[in-house]
Design brief:
Number of strands of chain B: 0
Largest sheet of chain B: none
Structural class of chain A: mainly alpha
Number of domains of chain A: 1
Mean pLDDT of chain A: 88
Largest sheet of chain A: none
Distance between the termini of chain A: 51 Å
Strand content of chain B: under 5%
Structural class of chain B: mainly alpha
Number of strands of chain A: 0
Order of helices and strands of chain A: HHH
Distance between the termini of chain B: 57 Å
Mean pLDDT of chain B: 89
Number of helices of chain A: 3
Strand content of chain A: under 5%
Number of domains of chain B: 1
Helix content of chain B: over 70%
Radius of gyration of chain A: 16 Å
Radius of gyration of chain B: 18 Å
Shape of chain B: elongated
Largest interface: A-B, 47 and 51 residues
Order of helices and strands of chain B: HHH
Oligomer: heterodimer
C-alpha cells in the first residue's frame, strides 16, 4: 500500500471528531426531529469509518458487508421513527 | 489487479488522486458538521445533513475505491456509495416531512 498509515489515522481521527458535533445536536436538539437528523448523520459517519478501517486493515471485503448492513438498518429505523412521529398529533 | 501490481508511476499518480479525493470529501464533511452546529432550525439543518453529507461521503468513498486498484473491492465500495447516495436523501425527506406535518415552525428572519 502506498499512502502512509498516518494519512489514514488523520482521516479516522477527524471523522471521529465530526461525530462529536452530531452528538451535540442529538443531546441538545430542541425538537425530536433534530435528534433523528443527528442520528442519521452519525450513522453515515459510522459507515464511512468502517470502510476506512477496512482499507487500513486490508480487509475491505468484510468491512464493506458490515457497513452495507448498517446502512440498511439505519434506513429502516429512521423511516419507522419518522412515520411514527408523523402520525402523532402534538409537537415535542 | 491490485494497486501494488501497477507500474511505479501509475501507483504514485493513483495514490495522489485518491488522497486528493479523500481530502475533498473530508472538507465537505466538515462543512456539514459546521452546518449542523450553527444553523437555526430543523429544516436548515436537514439541508446541511442531507446534501453536504451525501456529497462528502461520495468523494471520500470514491477516493478509497480508487485506492483499491481494479479489484472486486472497488465494486463493493461502489455498491456502498450508491446505497448511501440513494438512502440519505430519503431519510432526510421523511424526517423533514414528518416535522412539517406535525407543525414545527420554520425559522424566518424576524426570529433572529
Amino acid at each position: 500500500m502506498n499512502l502512509p498509515i498516518v494519512f489514514f489515522q488523520v482521516v479516522l481521527i477527524s471523522i471521529t471528531l465530526l461525530i462529536g458535533a452530531y452528538l451535540y445536536r442529538v443531546l441538545r436538539g430542541p425538537t425530536v426531529f433534530d435528534r433523528v437528523l443527528g442520528l442519521n448523520g452519525i450513522s453515515t459517519k459510522a459507515i464511512i469509518l468502517l470502510v476506512v478501517i477496512g482499507t487500513v486493515f486490508d480487509r475491505v471485503e468484510m468491512f464493506v458487508v458490515i457497513s452495507t448492513g448498517y446502512a440498511l438498518v439505519n434506513l429502516i429505523g429512521s423511516l419507522a421513527i419518522a412515520k411514527y412521529l408523523e402520525e402523532r398529533e402534538e409537537v415535542l | 489487479m491490485p494497486l501494488s501490481e501497477f507500474p511505479e508511476a501509475a501507483q504514485l499518480l493513483i495514490s495522489i488522486v485518491a488522497a486528493g479525493l479523500i481530502l475533498v470529501g473530508l472538507f465537505f464533511l466538515f462543512v456539514a458538521a459546521i452546518g449542523v452546529l450553527r444553523l437555526p432550525d430543523v429544516f436548515t439543518r436537514a439541508h446541511a445533513v442531507s446534501l453536504t453529507d451525501s456529497v462528502g461521503a461520495l468523494f471520500l468513498l470514491s477516493g478509497l475505491a480508487l485506492y483499491q486498484g481494479f479489484t472486486i473491492n472497488l465494486v463493493r465500495i461502489l455498491i456502498v456509495m450508491v446505497l448511501l447516495y440513494l438512502l440519505n436523501p430519503v431519510i432526510a425527506h421523511a424526517t423533514v416531512r414528518s416535522a412539517n406535518r406535525s407543525g414545527v415552525e420554520a425559522w424566518t428572519r424576524e426570529d433572529s
